[in-house]
Amino acid sequence: MIEIVKNFPDPMLMEPQDLCVSIYQPARPGSMELSADQVTYRNMLRELEEQLSERMDKREVQKWLLPLEEIKEDKGFWQDSIGGMALFATSDRALVYRFPGETLPFLSVGDTFLISPLIRKRVDIPFYLLGLSLTDFWIYKGNQEGLTEVPLQEGTPRTLEEVLGDQHTEGFLTHGRYAGPGGGGGSIFHGQGAKKDEAMIDLEKYFRYVDKFVSEEIVSKEPLPVILISLTEHQGEFRKISSNPNLHAQGVPEAFDIVKLEQQAESARRILAGEMESGLKSLIEMLPGEMAKGLASDDPVEISRAAEEGRIRTLLLGELQDSYKELTEDRVEAIRMRERSAEDTLKRGGDVLVADGVNITARSEMGAIFRY
Fold this sequence. Notes:
The protein is α+β, with helices and mostly antiparallel strands and about 375 residues long. The chain contains 11 helices and 15 strands.
């Protein structure tokens, strides 16, 4: 039976195996795409059978294929897909990772799993979304796969009215909603002079409450980045009073809207992905200077040895863009070396990052920054 897993790396991927099978392919939810992707999978299994037949007898081949064939016609499995999948198998276990976005088909049979394409696809930073208007707030926890609303304890004040209570200066103020959270989610306060000052006092009190609540009741328990969804002017006022170190410098500058929530969450994901790409670019740019000081390398053999010895702090890999049907023996060995280096680096507590592009330096698809 194939297991669908989320945690990476699964222990199986880090353990020595007699033989490792890795399959990458599109797995799209649309009906036409679904049918095409099932055909791709059947073709991959035929190719896998051919390769396994070169290594073992027919009985052993069938033992390997049996769990993988279970999903060939499983409509539920394919309909639940989200774009692409990576399947890893040994003689006694098979597991699948799903990820959004497409991937090139790739089949690998050898002494190590092909994990670097999955690392690239699983750039997944969990985060909080804080939807904030002048009169209410909402908190969601998100990642690459979706969103869930963070449940608040019953009776928790969340609206401006509930928070300010008797301290609310409503007698000095009128405000108009131009839509609710399902249709634009914002408020405009009306007033001039003293009335406007009273409004700003109320607003500051309320924003301080929200900031303290999110910091102490949410972020303190799981310190993730907080992406603020609020109108531009409210973003500025909230940031002035916020003492939350996890509040991200970038936000989504528009009114929180439950109808557009997934679009707003995608904006948050782009913010975090862009930040990660910027950090990766900086590491690649600093690599030549670190190499000159003997603190880094782009030599695959040296990197492989350093990975085995646990000396790599950060391993940088280019994106794998080969057609698996056109690999030479030398290229197969080069891929095996880079994947083994990735595995060894992760085992020994290092970081593995995969860039958008084939090469890390002008001469190599690998780069490593050493611990010492």
